[in-house]
Amino acid sequence: MPDSSRETATPDGAAAPDHLDSTSLMMDAVFRLERAVVRLQNQRLRSWNMTLSGYAALRVLADRPELSLAQLARRCHVRPQTMARIVANLEERGLMERSPHPESERAISLMLTPEGQTTLSGMTQEISKISADLGDVLTDKQAAELNNTLRACASTLESRLRHLS
Length: 165
Known about the structure:
Elements: E1 7-9, E2 15-17, H1 22-45, H2 52-63, H3 69-76, H4 80-92, E3 96-100, E4 108-112, H5 114-135, H6 140-164
Antiparallel strand pairs: 1-2, 3-4
Helix pairs in contact: 1-5, 2-3, 2-5, 3-4
């Protein structure tokens, strides 16, 4: 009887179990890529003492000023309680400020300060180096095709999740 725990090397030299089908191998590769990107992003943001969630909040607010805390939490895929802590930290650091929301008397509007915009610009330049590294491996066409394929896969699985809820 063959040993189903045997492994073969993938093109990048990593071990891949023989018994996995190509879709399972793809899921493993996506997981490895995600972990590598997160670790690299964390490393690149370290000099600013910034978390990925804090960076994401600044990026979203740069494009969508005057969001409420709840709106920002939804766009950053975190709970409102978590976003409240992130915003408090960014506000203490002078990167973000609150003001009355233009459309609601009860809501608070969030926006970047000039220091927040400058800080975000520096962090974005550093994070963009990850895209450049991936550009050394993928052509623009390959990156676009992979993006479309992965988004279609994500959409399918998100649909399954909604049906299970």
